Every structure is written in structure tokens, then in C-alpha cells.
Amino acid sequence: MKKLILLRHGESTWNKENRFTGWTDVDLSPKGLEEAKNSGRLLRESGFAFDVAYTSVLKRAIRTLWIALDEMDQMWIPIHLSWRLNERHYGALQGLNKTETALKYGEEQVQVWRRSYSIRPPALKPEDDRYPGFDPRYRGLASEDIPLTECLQDTVARFLPYWNETIAPQVQSGQRVLITAHGNSLRALVKYLDNLSDQDVLELNIPTGVPLVYELDDNLKPLRNYYLGDRAQIEQAMQVVANQGKILPPS
Ligand SMILES: O=C(O)[C@@H](CO)OP(=O)(O)O
């Protein structure tokens, strides 16, 4: 049996302010720093150790990984960064407050933008300062790979080549792999691993800073998965994510 650990970054400053984030490179909030440390502690106490880690090119995920590995005294393992693990690009919504957006356009519309599998949020214009093509970290990308907006289906399409060609062979060869990424990029991977329908993935909300353990067979088909930590707290943290686009702000 193979094990794979997925970890969403700790709370970011924009999670705290309830803003659409996407590819915006915001850092962890004080609570997010704590969550990252706690995730490392949970992994250590549960006996996990890693041979290799993968993360995005966004600092909330990178820092979460560093902190978790530090807590495990495993900062020495190889870390690979890829834009393909980035959060789903939120287009022109990036920076807007989710509750204010719900008040303006309605909760239903915001829910479609947040969770629809195939409907994209409004796109950025290429001349927008937020266009990733202006950011040196995406210099090596072909222009057709640089998003102006993404639905989850687009995120699945750019995540899967990296999974199939780079990460999955490592897991298959017995390497102990940690992936630290984002709410929607991890939803993309979970959809693929668990073969969730477009409808099922609507309901999936991944909490910040909680390790998600996947046990896989030799063909990388999931046998079971579970979060590490207190079940009631995890349920509450998932509900906080689900409520972010509601008119009543998350508590
Ligand atoms: O803003 C974002 O980029 C994501 C993750 O924080 O939010 P949501 O859960 O609304 O897709």
C-alpha cells in the first residue's frame, strides 16, 4: 500500500479577509502560521516522514511546507515547485471580498463562480496588472498556459500532466510524498483520485492546514482517505470554507 499526504496551506491573510485569492501571492496569517506548525506536529506524532515534497510557486503553500517540514525536522528533503500546483486562477474576482461580491451579484452567482466545475469567473484583461504574464516567475510559460481565469476543469487540466508525469511515478516507486497546495488545486487532484463526478466535487471543501492522508493501492487507486486531527474541528473548518461566499460572513 502507498501513502500520499495532501496539505492545504494554512489560513492566508486573504482567507482571513475573505477575499478571492487565486494566483495572488499573499502570505500566511498568524493563525495560518499556527496551522502550518500544527500540521507538522500532527504528521510527526502520527509517525509520518517524507522522501520528497511538491508545492506551488505561491508563498502561502511554500511557507506552510517549510514550517511543517521544520516541525518534523525534515527540511532537508528535496522540494519541487511547480506553477501547475497553483491555486485555481480566479480571474477578475481576485482581490474582491466574497461577501461583498455575494451582496452585489447574489449568493447563487458567487457559488457558481466558486464551485461550478466548468463555468469560469470573469476573465482578467491581458493588460491588467494582475495578469500573471507580468510576473517573472511565469517567464518560462507558453502564453497559452498563462490563465486569465480558470474553472476547476481548467485547473484539473493543468494539474494532471504534472501528477501523471512527475508525482505519480514517485508515489508508485515507493517514495513517501507530501503535496502542499491550495483549496482548489487539491480539489482538482481529489476529483481525479476519487473519480468524483462534477456534481460531487461541488460539495468538497478542503480545510486549511489539515493533513489529508490517502492510502492507495499499487495502481494508485484510493483505498481510503482521512484527515489527521480532531474530527469536530475539521468539520467546522470545512464549514467555514463552504460559508465564505455567503452573505453572512464566516465566523
Ligand atoms: O480565494 C481562493 O483562491 C480560494 C481559496 O482560498 O477560495 P474559494 O474557496 O472561494 O474557491
Automatic annotation (TrEMBL):
Keywords: Gluconeogenesis, Glycolysis, Isomerase
Alphabetical GO biological process terms: gluconeogenesis; glycolytic process
Sites annotated Transition state stabilizer: H182
Class of enzymatic activity (EC top level): isomerase
Reactions performed catalytically: (2R)-2-phosphoglycerate = (2R)-3-phosphoglycerate
Annotated Pfam families: His_Phos_1
Quaternary structure (record): Homodimer.
PANTHER family found in the cross-reference section: PHOSPHOGLYCERATE MUTASE
Task of the protein: Catalyzes the interconversion of 2-phosphoglycerate and 3-phosphoglycerate.
The name this protein goes by in its record: 2,3-bisphosphoglycerate-dependent phosphoglycerate mutase
Gene coding for it: gpmA
